[in-house]
Structures are given as C-alpha cells and as structure tokens.
Amino acid sequence: MLLVQGEAFNDLFRTAQREAFHLEVKDDYYPQGYPPLVRFLNNEPDDYAWFQPWLDLVKETTGRGVAVNRARVVTEPHNDYTRYAKHVARLNVEAGEDVRYLPRHRIDSTELTREDWWMFDDSVVSFSMFEPGEHGKWLGGGVTTDPGVVTYIRTVKQRVWSMATPLAEYR
Fold first, then answer.
1. CA-to-CA separations, 144 to 29, 109, 118, in angstroms, rounded
2. What is the pLDDT of residue 111?
3. Among 43, 44, 123, 164, whose CB has the most other CB atoms within 10 angstroms?
4. Rounded distance, CA 160 to CA 32, Å?
5. What are the DSSP calls for the chain, one per residue?
6. Per residue of the chain (171 residues), what is the pLDDT tens digit?
7. What pLDDT, on a 0 to 100 scale, did the predictor assign at position 134?
8. Could you give the CA distance from residue 138 to residue 25 in angstroms, rounded to a whole number?
9. Cα torsion at 152, 62, 28, 171 (round to 10°)?
C-alpha cells in the first residue's frame, strides 16, 4: 500500500476514466470546535471558501464525464456533524457529485468496511488515512490495486450504493 497525499491524491481523480466512488462510514470527522461546524450550529453565515478547492476538483472531474459518487452510512437520529454534512452536501451536488445516504440500521455491519475509502474505476482503492485519535486529521490515501481487496471493496460499493437514498430524497 502506498500513501498518497496532496496533488498525488488529487491526481487519482484526474486520471479516473469512469468513476470516483467514496464510502463514508464514520458518524463524526471533526471535533466540536471545528470552525465551519460551529458556524453551522450557531446559524452563522459561511462563504464556504475553505471548501472551494474540493468543489473545483469535483467540477473538473465531472466536467470530463467522470462520475463522482459518495455514499454516507449514518446513524439515525443524526448527530450535529451528520446534520452539518448533510447541509453542506448540497454544494457537493451542485458541483456534480451524486451524494447518497444509507441509515446504519438498514445494513449489517459485517457487510461494510470499518474504514472509509475511495474507489477509482473499480480498480484502484484508496483507504482514508487519519492521524491517530477520534478526530485525527486526514493524512491522505493508502492506495492499493490488490485484486482481492479491489474485489471485496467493489462488492461493498455495489451493496451500499444499491441501498442508499439520493440526498434530495433522504429525510
């Protein structure tokens, strides 16, 4: 497994031919003091400038005809982070992502991975790597093309995506 960071990680999107698929399985990614989350919880305005580099990458990728799909497995009722992420997901959708939600109680935990990952063109898997701790900073992706791992991840992807509800329909 190779750790890719920064532009090397972004290049996985730039070289994808058909799809970049993301599975998120955690209910929380940031500490309570995370400024955009605090602004959301306090109903304060946000210009989302911090999010623009991601949105630009999504637009660049989808502009080439490559699908960017994201499935979030979430606990209900939603915690503050999930409500915040759902609110911000409208920007992902406007940029071209297809964001879907799957309530955690609708899938057996043995049918999921414990970690988040990206899959590119059903052939490259990038496991999300975080600093140690509950709210560790994202470090990059641990990339593999191991056929056994790819086959397993593809199965999880197909299962979750077929059960997930598009953002616009998810309540």
1. 23, 23, 11
2. 95
3. 164
4. 28
5. -EEE-HHHHHHHHHH-SSEEEEEE--S--S-TT-HHHHHHHTT-----GGGHHHHHHHHHHHHTT-EEEEEEEE-SS--HHHHHHHHHHHHHHHHT-EEEEEEGGGS-GGGS-SS-EEEETTTEEEEEEE-SSTTPPEEEEEEE--HHHHHHHHHHHHHHHHH-EEGGG--
6. 899 999 999 999 999 999 999 999 999 888 778 899 999 999 999 999 999 999 999 999 999 999 999 999 999 999 999 999 999 999 999 999 999 999 999 999 999 999 999 999 999 999 999 878 666 678 899 999 999 999 999 999 999 999 999 999 998
7. 66
8. 15
9. -100
At position 168, the amino acid (one-letter code) is A
Q: What would you measure as the largest C-alpha separation in the chain, in angstroms?
A: 47
What is the pTM for the complete model shown?
Answer: 0.94
Please give the structure tokens belonging to residue 169.
């329909």
- Residue 68: which of 98, 39, 26, 105 has the closest Cα? 98
Pairwise CA distance, residues 22 & 51, whole Å: 17
Q: Do the Cβ atoms of 12 and 118 come closer than 8 Å?
A: yes
C-alpha separations of 154 from 108, 124, 129 in Å: 17, 10, 19
